[in-house]
């Protein structure tokens, strides 16, 4: 399954919380500039899988390699430094800080030209540029999601891990977020994205996997032909 | 009676500076880790004894002080790492009990070593006083106020020109968020716990200039530090400083005009009254204290 182009390769990943095991040997790979969607019903272990990559959950077994280096079980800050950057499901923003302060903190560790990075984010998110001094707590869910994605981009990620970016958002924001993710894809950044919105997921993904009770139950290449959305929904939920 | 008012205010400010420093040191640890160090008073006490030990080994006062603060910083980092970090996700009450237990252990150690003797740290300067108008300014007042003001200015500058202040805020608002922007939150907690211990230790050394050392020094200081924090607004660094100074003045004023009893009980009264009447204190926001 792994090809020389793969930057992220997970094999036999098992993880859980305390005595409760959630992932039972998960395999996947993400190639350079590739977008892989991780689908699955609620509670199937999608967030757990993403958090295991980013180091917030320690795997019980298995291997996760990023650019050839083993990152399984490393602490989050070390994984971040390699350019594996996550936008978590809860967003975890600094709610009482301004948009700009949130974004600047995103660039704090990996450094780089902060002014250029900021300009880049404000170009992708004109809505945030208008509200750069606004306190995040006072913003809508969609705007907060943009701050969360923007903050991750400030870290200049090599791979972006997005956990339900459209989750709980009003329809206009879902479209806006979808457009943003498509634009990001054009820049060539690799992404792994969890989505409940199958339409959105399939419109951006090159490949997708379906997680079921902690195992990869299906695996499709979207590029190789038309996919039947209904069939996918059925295989996720039934 | 009114003629002594300026004098009381000036002495009150000098004592209050000490309380301000201790309140601020608890606040730094609290802001960075969201955990209140209930054993903090004993680290204040340990700072004074550590300086005493280094001076006793023949070092001049200034290097002894610096070594003592460095030791307490290390002690803070290590105890956070070894005792607090493993239970950091547990109930806050466990963390409070752990901090208290560490404090008691330190106090026990001091009792074993110095429990039965009177230990005087001694001043590294000549005691003296100046008249400014009708107000007497002692060297102690000047040294303590000068040291605290210099320390506060340094901290204010460090917090504003380096990312440290912003990072403390970030960790306080969302630990997960701080980890998501690549901060090593564990290490950061340790460093800040250590910084709080070192700042508290500095307060202990200043206090040691004025009174004989005793293993129970921490009790005296912690209640005043908490009262100052409560008055200023729990968690607000600025509030901690203002609260400390106001508390120092209140002790002196009530102690003189009402009864000397108030010197000892003002801190308790202030805590109770503020919590009843205005729980957020002077500069606090929401009362989101997790013990
Ligand atoms: N921090 C946690 N502690 C204990 N159990 C958890 C935790 N996070 C998730 N779980 C459990 O793990 C399972 C998978 O959760 P999750 O990975 O969040 O699923 P998904 O993202 O696919 O909805 C669920 O049963 C959930 O209750
Ligand atoms: Mg999830």
Write out key terms for the chains shown.
heterodimer; A: 238 residues; alpha/beta; 6-stranded mixed sheet; 9 helices; 10 strands; B: 291 residues; mainly alpha; ABC transporter involved in vitamin B12 uptake, BtuC; two-stranded antiparallel sheet; 11 helices; 3% strand; globular; binds adenosine-5'-diphosphate; binds magnesium ion
Describe this structure in words.
- The complex is a heterodimer of chains A (238) and B (291).
- By secondary structure, chain A is an alpha/beta fold.
- Chain A contains nine helices and ten strands.
- Chain A has helices at 46-54, 76-81, 99-106, 114-124, 126-130, 141-154, 171-186, 198-204, 229-237; strands at 6-17, 20-31, 35-40, 61-66, 69-70, 84-87, 159-163, 190-194, 207-212, 215-221.
- In chain A, the strands form two sheets. A six-stranded mixed sheet of chain A has the order 6-7-8-3-9-10, with helices on both faces. Chain A has a four-stranded antiparallel sheet with strand order 2-1-4-5, covered by helices on one side.
- In chain A, strand 4 (61-66) and strand 5 (69-70) form a beta hairpin.
- In chain A, helix 4 (114-124) packs antiparallel against helix 6 (141-154).
- The radius of gyration of chain A is 17 Å and the shape is globular.
- With 291 residues, chain B is mainly α.
- Chain B has a single domain, classed as ABC transporter involved in vitamin B12 uptake, BtuC (Orthogonal Bundle).
- Chain B is 73% helix and 3% strand.
- Chain B has eleven helices and two strands.
- Chain B has a two-stranded antiparallel sheet with strand order 1-2.
- In chain B, strand 1 and strand 2 form a beta hairpin.
- In chain B, helix 1 packs antiparallel against helix 10 (237-257) and helix 2 (40-56) runs antiparallel to helix 3 (61-84).
- The model of chain B has no long low-confidence stretch (mean pLDDT 92).
- The A-B interface holds A 56, 75-77, 80-81, 85-88, 90, 92-97, 101, 105-106, 108-110, 151-152, 155 and B 163, 166-167, 169-170, 173-174, 176-186.
């Amino acid at each position: 399954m792994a090809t020389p182009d793969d930057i992220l390769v997970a094999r036999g990943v098992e993880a859980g919380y305390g005595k409760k095991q959630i992932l039972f040997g998960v395999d996947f790979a993400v190639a350079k500039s590739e977008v892989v969607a991780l689908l699955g019903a609620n509670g199937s272990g999608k967030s757990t899988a993403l958090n295991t990559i980013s180091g917030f959950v320690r795997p019980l077994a298995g291997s996760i390699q990023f650019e050839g280096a083993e990152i399984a079980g490393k602490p989050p800050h070390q994984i971040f430094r390699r350019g594996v950057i996550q936008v978590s499901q809860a967003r975890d923003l600094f709610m009482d800080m301004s948009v700009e302060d949130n974004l600047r903190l995103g660039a704090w560790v990996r450094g780089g030209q902060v002014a250029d990075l900021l300009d880049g984010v404000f170009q992708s998110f004109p809505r945030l540029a208008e509200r750069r001094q606004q306190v995040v707590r006072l913003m809508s869910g969609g705007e907060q999601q943009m701050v969360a994605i923007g903050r991750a981009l400030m870290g200049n990620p090599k791979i972006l891990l997005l956990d339900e970016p459209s989750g709980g958002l009003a329809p206009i924001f879902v479209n806006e977020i979808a457009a943003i993710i498509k634009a990001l894809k054009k820049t060539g950044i690799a992404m792994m994205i969890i989505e409940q919105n199958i339409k959105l997921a399939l419109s951006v993904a090159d490949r997708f996997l379906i997680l079921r009770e902690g195992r990869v139950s299906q695996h499709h290449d979207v590029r190789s032909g038309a996919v039947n959305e209904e069939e996918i929904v059925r295989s996720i939920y039934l | 009676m009114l003629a002594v008012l300026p004098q009381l205010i000036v002495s009150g400010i000098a004592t209050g500076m000490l309380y301000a420093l201790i309140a601020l040191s608890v606040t730094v640890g609290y802001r960075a880790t969201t955990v209140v160090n209930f054993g903090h008073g004993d680290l204040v006490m340990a700072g004074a004894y550590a300086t005493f030990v280094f001076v006793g080994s023949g070092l001049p006062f200034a290097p002894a002080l610096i070594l003592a603060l460095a030791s307490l910083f290390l002690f803070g980092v290590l105890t956070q790492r070894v005792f607090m970090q493993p239970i950091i996700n547990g109930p806050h009450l466990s963390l409070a009990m752990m901090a208290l237990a560490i404090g008691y252990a330190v106090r026990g150690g001091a009792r074993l070593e110095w429990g039965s003797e009177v230990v005087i740290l001694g001043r590294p300067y000549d005691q003296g006083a100046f008249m400014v108008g009708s107000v007497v300014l002692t060297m102690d007042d000047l040294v303590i106020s000068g040291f605290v003001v210099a320390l506060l200015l340094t901290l204010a500058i460090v917090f504003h020109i380096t990312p440290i202040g912003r990072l403390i805020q970030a960790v306080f608002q969302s630990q997960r968020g701080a980890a998501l922007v690549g901060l090593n939150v564990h290490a950061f907690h340790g460093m800040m716990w250590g910084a709080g211990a070192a700042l508290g230790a500095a307060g202990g050394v200043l206090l040691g200039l004025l009174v004989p050392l005793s293993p129970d020094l921490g009790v005296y200081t912690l209640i005043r530090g908490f009262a100052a924090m409560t008055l200023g607004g729990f968690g607000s660094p600025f509030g901690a400083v203002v609260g400390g100074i106001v508390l120092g003045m209140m002790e002196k004023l009530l102690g003189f005009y009402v009864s000397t009893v108030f010197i000892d009980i003002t801190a308790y009264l202030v805590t109770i009254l503020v919590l009843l009447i205005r729980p957020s204190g002077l500069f606090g926001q929401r009362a989101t204290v997790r013990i």
